[in-house]
Amino acid sequence: xxxxxxxxxxxxxxxxxxxxxxxxxxxxxxxxxxxxxxxxxxxxxxxxxxxxxxxxxxxxxxxxxxxxxxxxxxxxxxxxxxxxxxxxxxxxxxxxxxxxxxxxxxxxxxxxxxxxxxxxxxxxxxxxxxxxxxxxxxxxxxxxxxxxxxxxxxxxxxxxxxxxxxxxxxxxxxxxxxxxxxxxxxxxxxxxxxxxxxxxxxxxxxxxxxx
Length: 211
Prior knowledge:
It contains eight helices and four strands, in the order E-H-E-H-E-E-H-H-H-H-H-H. By secondary structure, it is α+β, with helices and mostly antiparallel strands.
């Protein structure tokens, strides 16, 4: 990994999880902002780079990847054996334990916090009370899982934690108060204390949920 470019936007939780991992690993890279709010991801120029027209995109010399979870695995594996093993372990059993939280994020957190943030934060109809209810259920599950552990899997930070963090960070933008989730808030503090941590940008004021 010698010439990394990350196409990103501050509002994108998917982009931030990749940016966070790059920062945690100390991987030099150039960040190029594609303005989602202005629709720049629909431009013909960006479509040539990524026909799916979504962020993030990572370009490593001639290699181009999209979809944040696959990019996380690529970055973890390319950064070196010791560091990569911490974040994306060798062995299919350990990988499965980490991957389940990545899939949980892509499904439950995206369709809960993500859609509630779209509606309550950006005014984009995205499921309303149903999305908010799904978000609260997912947060309760995360909080309960952390009741007797510091990290989501393997007793250390992994791609599970990197995947989950951005959605939890923007929960207040979806009108969700994190105060009831004691264990989850303690976990956020641990993530925030990691060397190289980069916080998820807050681009919206906190929102009160509306029925």
